[in-house]
Amino acid sequence: MSYLNVPRLTFSGDFISDVSTVNNDPQHYNNNTFKKSFQEFGTGSNNGWWNPEGGATFGFQDCHVQQITGDDGNSSSDPLLDGIIGQIVCGAEGRNSGKMVDLDPQQQMVSQLWGVTFRILTATNELLLEGKIEPTGFRDLQMRQQTGARVNGQPLGGTWTSVLEDVVWGDLAYQSLFLMSLKSKTQENRLSINLNGFGYYYAHATDGRFSLGRILGSLGPWFSGEPKLFPPARRLYGIVSNNNNVFFAASNFILDKENARLSIDFGSSFPVSDSIGTIALNTELFLAVSKTAIGPSPGATPYMVSPDGVLFIGKLEYENGTGWLNSTSGIVDFNNLSHEVLSALKDNQLLLLGASSKADQFVVIAREAVDGIVLRADEFVQRLDTNQTNEISFYASQYGLPLPNHAIYITLEPPTPMTPKLQNTPPICDVPGNNYPADGLTFDAVITTDVNGVGVLKLTGNSIDSPRGYLDGQIYTLDYDLAGVNTDPASGSVMPQNFIAIHLRDYFEIPETPVWADIQPTMVQFANLYPIMSKFFIDFSDPNALIAKKELLIFAFDRDIKDPIYMPVTRDLSETKRLTILKWLRNPIIEGEAIVVTQQKAKGEINLIQEDTVTEAVPLTNNQLRLRDAVRAKNGADFNMPEITNLFEF
Length: 650
Description:
alpha+beta, 9-stranded antiparallel β-sheet, single chain, Immunoglobulin-like, 8-stranded antiparallel barrel, 12 helices
């Protein structure tokens, strides 16, 4: 079960993400080369970029329940049929909002939500449903806006999928037949939630939408043993490239054979013409099943099929304008499938087709993954301390069924070289590479799926000693693939795809009696990177200012990592460094020298790196090049804003 299953609820509105941009540039972490101008507004990558005083907040704004879909697959947006329709979707009451943070300035493709509460309320502020969103990073970053992106500055969209934990059903929930049906069907008091964000405003535009984006959400049942951070679904990949822009790049769908229903999510992929979800297509779209295997990569030349080569399921009844997408969240149900279609979908690819100027030809806009194979990791974003071991679950399936007894290969990406100062924009200092030392991580190179198609990887962090210098810890990337299965050539249009992003924190020994010098580099870095704090709350570089507000700081640094108040907000500090800060705040000593690093090296507890590992000019892999380009795109740089008015017209 997932947000695609019924009973299902959809909602839409805006999200606010007041991200901090000073910390987008790795060079800004170097205390020795930091300048006050880096805290000021700048265009592109100058100064502190486009939002230097951001607070990393994330929240729902003006969101409402739009539609419900019952167990019979029928949808309704009429509040007279169920009072849940039209109700308010919002965040926590009377406390800090959630946070959206990158894993690291050198890994910005898995931005995570932390400490986000999800609530549905009546107009009189009475609780219907509440839950905490399990921290999750976005996936399926893909092109969304075919036009209009110059207004908001970001044409891409991304998806957060997670579960609501510790669900509370309000006293009035029993008045909603839909909520009672959902409660009876879901398991472990969890719900599956999906958030498709797009139309985000980097630009300080005159319409007042700076730091806002559009969100299309859905809520459904969750079952034990399923992944938490992605749906157990089949995948549809776009293969039409228009000036290197691929739309409908990735979409999830499920086949409910028992109820003869196919449910597909275009909320993550449907092309729009502005930042609020306006559709402006002139092409009839159809779902069909291919009678033969189709495996082309995205290309400018359309791949055509004849009506005889497919089995039609039905027409996609979308509507131009803003109403359809914002009401349905882009989820479409095809009910009462024929036995012929159900049988064909067992081992044949689903297709999204577009009508062409030739009556006997259809354009294949998107196709199911080659051989229907999907392999995804659940806990794909990892924060690791020394000697910490985490488990990562991998789910392998073919045409929606588990792939048992299959080997999964896990490989560490090769080390990337240091980027010299003069090659950076702007040139501030050298930027270290990633994925070294290789023995910073311990893991099995091969794991095997069980009868349910699930394989578990144990990942252990080892001791490393500041391989990146002024950046804490190291960023590692693990790639994974099924043995004997090539990566689908169409999957490259979305990021991230088939990798594990890891921040291994530096080994650090808690001093018996910490002095200011032990925490000064970290606190000065905080002051530099988060001017909203240093300008309006406290100067973290001043020990006396910290002492004056130490009780508030102790409260924040002592929170659980899932708490929105937790410090540091980026959650990138080793546990021992955080505990050292707490220890100093409880007994602040300003005078004295830091001797911790010397003690560590003397004990031989650190895996030191070879200098040539950092500077060796090793060509970047295709995945590393894609990651680099995607980070630039995510930050609103190095790509053209598309203006395509004839999309899919052939």
